[in-house]
Amino acid sequence: MRTTSAAFFLCLSFMAGAQAGEKAGDKFPGVGRTATTTEVKAWDIDVRPDFKGLPKGQGTVHQGEAVWESQCASCHGSFGESSEIFTPIAGGTSAEDIKTGKVDSLLPGSNQPQRTTLMKVSTLSTLWDYINRAMPWTAPKSLTADEVYAVTAYILNLGNVVPADFTLSDRNIREVQERLPNRKGTTTAHAMWPTTELGGTKQPDVQGSSCVRDCKKDVEVKSFLPDYTRNAHGQLSEQFRLIGGSRGTDTSQPAGSARPVKVAALAPAAKAAPEKVAAAAAGPASATAAVMPLLQKNACVACHGMDSKIVGPSFKDIANKYKDQADGVKYLSGKIKAGGQGVWGSMPMPAQALSEAEAAQLAQWLTRDFAP
User: Fold this and answer.
1) What is the pLDDT of residues 71-94, one digit of tens each?
2) C-alpha to C-alpha distance for 40 and 109, rounded to whole angstroms
3) CA–CA dist 302, 304 (Å, integer)
């Protein structure tokens, strides 16, 4: 298992390309530059299996539980049991697994109903690195190093890897690695690892000496989507595009029978009187365009489709539910900020880091100005 950051290698490639561009300035004048130390540092935040890149810090299991309840439990459950959307974090490991470093419930014939994170992860750096870069879902990279250590300690305690009074830090994380249940479940002894420093090899895993001759040169490759997958992401012709005119195939129809939908936006109105153009621009579509940056910035569209359910209900369903409610704006503003569960099923919505004004703007759009 490898946690090398693709972003860091992208930066290195960018630097190499920029330097090459400087040497060949006559061929590509003014293209590219060497990335600054600060720019490289901003991207180079990954933690490797040998713990290179791990920042200093520490956190207790108790502190991790507090962070978990406020930032993680809404999606992953108080004890890592998660929900019907996210897979469990803890479970499926035993004291014997911690001793041997290989998880028995991963073997064929096991009665384990679902593979958990602690069953699969083989390097503690992977767990720490993923939490640090990607969690919480609604605000990635917002946790401090100490909070990441604390949350990692809490997860490890859920799997009985560390005791309840344990403090995880950059000083003892290597010792804890030696108690990870699946630490011996993977290997770096293969040529996919870029160097030999972590036990990799230079010899390719697969070697071939046969030469295929007289191959057919004209090869036609075709691909298609089965009809049952055409509407997997909802009706494309009705989905809103922030930039440019709306385009999309009528995906509710079988392939071949659907016609591209042409939307002229405000083009016809542009020939009308200025006051009519202004009235059209101030309509529901304009209101949706106004809130779209806010929806994208706060990852609302990751869970809610305009007219189709993703993780949570569609915006259309929410609008229909509250459009006639007298205190709809106030009620939805509070629900957006505080989060909760039970209204639309068991899947919870985490609290959102929005200002009162932003929450009110979204609530106003949903209850008064919504247009898909």
Assistant:
1) 898 888 889 888 767 889 999 999
2) 47
3) 6
Q: What is the number of alpha carbons within 13 Å of residue 121 lying toward its C-beta?
A: 27
Residue 138 structure tokens: 């609604």
Coil, helix or strand at residue 168: strand
Alpha helices, DSSP H only, in the chain? 6-23, 37-43, 61-67, 73-76, 95-100, 117-120, 124-134, 145-158, 173-177, 267-270, 274-281, 284-297, 315-322, 328-338, 356-364
Can you say how many angstroms the Cα of residue 55 is from the centroid of all Cα atoms in its chain? 23
In a 3-state reduction of DSSP, which class is residue 247? Answer: strand
Peptide bond before residue 136 is cis, with ω within 30 degrees of 0? yes
Q: Supply 290's token pair.
A: 């106004």
Helix (H) or strand (E) holding 58: strand 58-60
pLDDT at 14 exceeding the cut of 60: no
Residue whose token pair is 């365009």: 289
DSSP assignment of 73-85: HHHH-TTS---SS
In total, the chain counts a number of residues equal to: 372
Whose tokens are 């040529």? That residue is 191
Q: Which long-range contacts (CB under 8 A, 24 or more apart) does 105-114 make?
A: 106/182, 106/185, 114/87, 114/88
Separation of alpha carbons 176 and 249, rounded Å: 53
What φ, ψ does residue 29 adopt, rounded to 5°? -65, 135
Q: Is the pTM of the predicted complex or chain greater than 0.90?
A: no
DSSP structural state of residue 309 = B
Beta bridge partners of 249: 260
Give the whole-angstrom CA distance, residue 9 versus residue 247.
Answer: 36
Among 47, 8, 88, CA closest to 174 = 47
Q: What secondary structure does DSSP assign to 2-34, as a single string?
A: ----HHHHHHHHHHHHHHHHHHTTTTSTT---P
Calculate the CA 297 to chain-centre distance: 14
User: What does the pLDDT look like over 148-162, one tens digit per residue?
Assistant: 999 999 999 999 999
Mean pLDDT computed over every residue of the chain: 78
Structure tokens at 112: 């384990």
Instruction: Give the C-alpha separation, 70 to 182, whole Å.
Output: 29
CB 199 within 8 A of CB 187: yes
